[in-house]
């Protein structure tokens, strides 16, 4: 009997029994093992480096996603990568095991939102948007969460540090990419913008490109301890 015969091992029940070959099924097992063991979402490029060269990573991801679609954990695309997550309708079962998240102050939430939408952004630019000063402690709290990072230094007098968000930010807020943040219409629909915005008001289109902008210099080794 050929390897595609009826006795070929069923790795995921009936969902993927139409896979074309034993090799592909083996690649699928490898992919499942890698993603299951990873603490962070993994991108297709990273997965391709860890799988055999003949592996069809995009196709395998779709097969695995389909295989887990009705299970207690699902394969989802998040933070520009792929990861297993508890099915949304079963999240209530994990309530007792869930770690109590650290509650951020209103100042920290406002600062985080400004960094997400306006990155790369300096502390002075954050204060300009908020209309009030932002303490170093507020920035420290967001750095401790791992949701923001130091990007570089602005090529302006004083060379202030620029801030941006991280993949941990995308992962925590279940965003596939930074441009999944709500736009003007979605913010209005959620009741977060009251009344009619003034003429010319726009919600910035966010970007978390790792490449430094033309007005940014790279950080130095001393910046970890002296960034304010």
UniProtKB/TrEMBL annotation:
Pfam families attached to this UniProt entry: SMC_ScpB
Region annotated Disordered, chain positions: 189-228
Domain of life according to the entry = Bacteria
**InterPro entries linked to this entry:** ScpB_csome_segregation (IPR005234), WH-like_DNA-bd_sf (IPR036388), WH_DNA-bd_sf (IPR036390)
Protein name (database record): Segregation and condensation protein B
Q: Work out whether the entry's keyword set contains Acetylation.
A: no
Keyword set, alphabetical order: Cell cycle, Cell division, Chromosome partition, Cytoplasm
Where along the chain is composition biased (Acidic residues)? 207-228
Q: What's a single GO BP term from this record? A: chromosome separation
Q: Decide whether keyword Cytoplasm is in the record.
A: yes
């Amino acid at each position: 009997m050929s390897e595609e015969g009826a006795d070929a091992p069923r790795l995921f029940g009936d969902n993927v029994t139409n896979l074309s070959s034993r090799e592909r099924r083996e690649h699928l097992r490898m992919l499942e093992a890698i993603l299951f063991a990873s603490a962070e979402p993994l991108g297709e490029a990273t997965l391709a480096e860890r799988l055999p060269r003949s592996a069809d990573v995009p196709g395998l991801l779709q097969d695995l996603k389909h295989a887990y679609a009705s299970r207690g954990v699902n394969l989802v695309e998040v933070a520009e990568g792929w990861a297993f997550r508890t099915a949304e309708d079963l999240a209530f079962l994990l309530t007792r095991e869930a770690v109590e998240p650290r509650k951020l102050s209103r100042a920290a939430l406002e600062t985080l939102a400004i960094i997400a939408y306006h990155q790369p952004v300096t502390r002075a630019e954050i204060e300009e948007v908020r209309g009030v000063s932002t303490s170093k402690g507020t920035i420290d709290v967001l750095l401790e969460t791992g949701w923001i990072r130091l990007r570089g230094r602005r090529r302006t007098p004083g060379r202030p540090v620029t801030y941006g968000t991280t993949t941990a930010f995308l992962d925590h807020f279940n965003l596939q990419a930074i441009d999944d943040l709500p736009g003007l219409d979605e913010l209005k629909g959620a009741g977060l913008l009251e009344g009619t915005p003034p003429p010319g008001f726009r919600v910035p289109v966010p970007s978390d490109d790792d490449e430094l902008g033309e007005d940014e210099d790279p950080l130095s080794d001393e910046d970890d301890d002296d960034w304010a």
